Amino acid sequence: MHRIEDLYALIDSLPIPAAVTAVTDDRVLRLSGAFAEAFGRDPSSTAGRPAQELHSDPGERQSILDRLESGETVAATLRGAGDVPHSVEVVARRVDTTDGPVLLQAFHDITRLVRLEAALRQSEKMATLGTLSAGVAHELNNPATAAQRGAEQLERAFEALQAAYTAVSAPALPEVTAAALTELDDEARRAAATSHPLDPVARSDREVAVEEWLERAGVLDAWEAAPALVESGIDSARLAGFPERFGEHAGALANWMARSYTVYRLLHEIRHGAGRLSEIVGALKAYSYVGQAPVKDVDVNKDVRNTLVILRNKLKRGIEVRDELDETIPHIEAHGSELTQVWTNIIDNAADALDGTGTITLRSSSADGWVRVHIEDDGPGIPPDVQPRVFEAFFTTKPPGKGLGLGLNTAYDIVVSKHGGRMSLDSEPGRTAFVVELPTTLPAADTKEE
H or E stretch including 79? Predict the structure, then answer.
């Protein structure tokens, strides 16, 4: 039979968290100093309280109690200071004392290991995504480049065709009308590269008036030509001067311009679309950094802009991005594939905070061997009581299913631990700014290839 005082002295001498609870009613009798230090619990105020209050989930205590008494090692979650959960492994032994049977328990805090495992899983997913992205980008690059080159060549070929057709037609037309072919063709080409926005009612009224003029001028399929003329900026008032300039050829030339505009507009859209596809492919290849050295020369501004391209679909719903990046900042030595995660997580969080409406401002600067990137949004801001915890693993203010709370923690680890940099937050209502500071040269230990 052991004296309870001897048991208390024993756990007080242990370097690991320990506790003594009564078997009969599972009250806390004693917490060791190491327990109080590890989990931020006050031993004096906890003594005599139900042991289930030590757990994040009070119902968990009863479900593991029988297994604890049998000597089995049990996984549990303790409630630390500020209700921060701690994943622990618990081993217990039943001891008969002069004050009745008690349960002597020792705790091993595995919170850091659990978080590290989750972070590694996330990192592995990002690496897999990068590999897949690089493969897709490689497959898309050739057809994208071919489409863009073909569209540019087709536009030049059509211009040459128009010029040749004009030269063939000129002898059969009055001098002023022959010159007008080139003039109207140039106007159609310029109009195709711009836009003439109109509200639906105004557009409809103009199309009706233009269609009526074309019909009077003897143009077949006037209903098809009218929308193209209106879209190019031609209205019935402009057409009213055609008969005086071109006589009997007025209707034919108006129809000519409508058809030329349509072709040029399609060519412009194809070239623009192919160009956008090439831009996205290029950004995707640069974003993934797959196949490149772990440590490389990185253009931070380019990295941030490539991230904007990748996130464009999320940013285009009413979010304005102001690019105030300083083009004179130097390149830095960095783990490029990991820095992309930093910009992605910060900008993605800013977009979520704005909820579709607002402004994200990007700035960069350099001084004394450091590059500084400032990413600011004009969203609601982060409450003061939350700010100290934004870089904690698994901490998130997003609703369930919207985030795991690893984004900013991952970004912080990459900046601080991987690059020897600094990352800070400055927030108030209507403004949140994340500042990332990176040395232009990595610490010596981090320049080795992985």
Answer: strand 74-79
- Residue 326's pLDDT band, with cuts at 50, 70 and 90, is very high
The domain that holds 85 is classified in CATH as 3.30.450.20
Categorize the per-residue pLDDT at 187 as very low, low, confident or very high, splitting at 50, 70 and 90: confident
| Winning range, highest mean pLDDT, from 188-202, 275-289, 428-442 | 428-442
On whether both 423 and 319 belong to a single domain, the answer is yes
Tokens of 133: 């992205």
Please, what is the average pLDDT of the chain? Answer: 80
**Last residue of some domain: 238, 259, 280?**
280
By C-alpha distance, which of 376, 306, 382 is closest to 337? Answer: 306
- Radius of gyration in angstroms for the set of CA atoms belonging to the chain, rounded to a whole number: 35
Q: Which of 109, 137, 163 is the last residue of a domain?
A: 109
- Show the domain range for 91: 4-109
275 and 328 together in one domain: no
State pLDDT tens for residues 165-179. Answer: 665 465 556 665 667
Can you give the three-state secondary structure of 306-349, one letter per residue?
A: HHHHHCHHHHCCCEEEEEECCCCCCCEEECHHHHHHHHHHHHHH
What are the φ and ψ backbone dihedral angles of 353, each rounded to 5 degrees?
Answer: -65, -35
Q: Is residue 338 part of a domain?
A: yes
Residue 285 located in a structural domain:
no
pLDDT tens, position by position, 96-110: 988 899 988 888 887
In contact, 23 and 102? CB cutoff 8 Å: yes
CATH number at residue 429: 3.30.565.10
3-class SS of residue 440: coil
* Burial group, residue 197, by CB count within 10 angstroms (0-12, 13-18, 19+): exposed
Indicate if 217 and 363 belong to the same structural domain.
Answer: no
429 in the same domain as 350: yes
Could you identify the residue written with the tokens 């409450």? 383
Which tokens sit at 364?
Answer: 């960069």
Query: 103: helix, coil or strand?
Result: strand
In a domain, 373, yes or no: yes
Tell me the CA distances in angstroms from 448 to 286, 292, 295, 297, 299, one per residue in order: 21, 14, 8, 14, 20
In which region does residue 430 sit, left (phi positive, over 0), alpha (psi from -120 to 50) or beta (all else)? left
